[in-house]
User: What shape does this take?
Amino acid sequence: MVVIRENEEDTYAGIEHRQTTEVTQCLKLITRPGCERIARYAFTWARANGRRKVTCMTKDNIMKLTDGLFRQVAEEVAQDYPDLAYEHLIVDIGAARLADTPEDFDVVLVPNLYGDILSDVVAQLAGSVGLAGSANIGVECAMFEAIHGSAPAIAGRNVANPTGLLNAAAMMLRHVGQPGVAIRVENALLRTIEDGIHTQDIYTEGQSGRLVGTQEFADAVIERLGLVPAVLSAARAAGEPVPAVTTPTGTPRRPHKELVGVDVFVDWDAPRRDANELSARLRALVADDLRLTMITNRGVKVWPERHAATFCTDHWRCRFVGGTGNPVTPAAVANALLRLAYAGIDVVKTENLYTFDGRPGYSLGQGE
Assistant: This one.
């Protein structure tokens, strides 16, 4: 199984803020060019390496815009590869099926965060997170490493399994056009594992032959250069290395973008945390061009008609949209924010609400 993940976007953009005493946020950024690059790479790699199926996993039933875009682009790209089977799974059930029947999967295409998690799960299914190598394929360069990165807790103790690094090195050899050397290393590695020479992470009493450290394992691999495994499938030549896919150079059609409102995030810690009280104050301050239509707390609608059992923090999203027949202008949004500021309302963030070709570019509140 091969996990192909996007490696620059998603929550790994590292954009986080503490907005109130109780609430922090992390921005999840998904772009169409980023989705297209990784999706096209996954399908191109699968075809070049004789694979049969690409499985895309997202959580687009909840994150309809971000994960929804990733899924949409994957399905668009899949149309260009009719020789490959394609399926989409929600990532939670997909992970469960992957853990139960990994043989049903071939190439798994995922956004950054899910890929980080699932690649370790896949390696552990094979026996240890220390077994798998990884490649970061860029347009100008590539970098290869064990999927788990460094392991400082066991550094210098001669207990780490070097298989992940060896597999990464073999991937690098294939990438630079030396598949024959890669196959020799891979077969020696497989023969070492097959002969029961195991580091502590894969050693099993009664099944393994000999418990060894990092150096001893490496020596055993060297001793078996030129040999092939007797039971495990021997390494074989793969397709040509697949370079990173560049983004399209043409100018895409830009949809009609229209400002229709603004979400105002407020730090408000009144004793009762009553959304009705907050809404009354906001409606008295902002009128005319904008009208308050909803307040949520942690994404759940609490005005109008808050459920009594809803737990609230000091972080409130207050949605203002244009009044009947009145187009929303940037000046109207700025004027509303000024009124709130002069009244002492602590606005910690705003998000303009846009439609694109008439379709909302924002999510509804839970319960809206």
